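queue> pop job 88
queue> type: inverse folding (structure -> sequence)
queue> payload:
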């Protein structure tokens, strides 16, 4: 079941890459206008972040306090979430961090590979397209296998967002994508439908063949999120997700 009245992936002005105007209150105001029933705020926590913007981690003690004030004042339910970035050398710290706060929704993401930022394009240098993408999927699988304390795996196939190689060939990576989907199902974790892909690449993350396959394998758990960094992006492109699932269920 997909909950179209909720947004489970949101960044506020606490994040270095969000709009200054992206306050909890501004999101709540916009959510009321849109008739949404619940918001989950999922600030970034990338330990040993490669991107300079994220070198200084957010003070989560202060963040949680501010969130709780906003929650008390909000006319709609708010949930305390987090988006954690997996890198193989930070697993212990990551688990410690997740144990320290009462998160109600943990999103697991891959933003860096080989300690390189996908955003700058450096990661892709010297690799073939299939190799660059295969390493990404292998790392997704490793992250899902290694980390237990999460609820949803975020923006699967984000690897193409800043890639010079363009769209991936589903058939080339089908086997490892199957492994990822099966593991999510086995671990009872959700597959995130991340609508920020429509903004960047005119498609959902993950792409339609992956969603079809997940359903075929018996996957039922989805979370839906816009990955908004400003209130105007809240619940973005939900109508396109609705259309996609109508198409799938034909
Ligand atoms: Zn992310
Ligand atoms: Zn995000």
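queue> result:
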């Amino acid at each position: 079941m997909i909950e179209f009245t909720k947004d489970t992936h949101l960044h506020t002005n606490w994040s270095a890459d969000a709009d200054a105007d992206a306050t909890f209150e501004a999101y709540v105001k916009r959510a009321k206008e849109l008739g949404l029933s619940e918001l989950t705020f999922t600030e970034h926590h990338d330990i040993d972040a490669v991107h300079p913007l994220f070198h200084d981690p957010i003070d989560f003690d202060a963040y949680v306090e501010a969130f709780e004030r906003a929650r008390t004042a909000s006319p709609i339910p708010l949930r305390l979430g987090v988006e954690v970035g997996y890198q193989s050398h930070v697993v212990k710290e990551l688990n410690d961090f997740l144990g320290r706060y009462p998160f109600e929704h943990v999103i697991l993401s891959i933003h860096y590979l080989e300690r390189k930022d996908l955003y700058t394009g450096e990661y892709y240098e010297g690799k073939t397209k299939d190799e660059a993408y295969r390493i990404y999927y292998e790392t997704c699988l490793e992250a899902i296998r290694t980390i237990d304390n999460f609820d949803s795996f975020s923006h699967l196939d984000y690897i193409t967002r800043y890639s010079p190689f363009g769209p991936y060939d589903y058939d080339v990576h089908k086997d490892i994508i199957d492994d990822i989907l099966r593991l999510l199902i086995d671990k009872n974790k959700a597959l995130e439908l991340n609508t920020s892909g429509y903004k960047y690449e005119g498609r959902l993350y993950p792409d339609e063949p992956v969603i079809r396959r997940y359903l075929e394998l018996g996957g039922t758990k989805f979370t839906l999120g816009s990955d908004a960094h400003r209130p105007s992006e809240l619940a973005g492109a939900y109508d396109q997700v609705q259309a996609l699932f109508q198409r799938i269920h034909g």
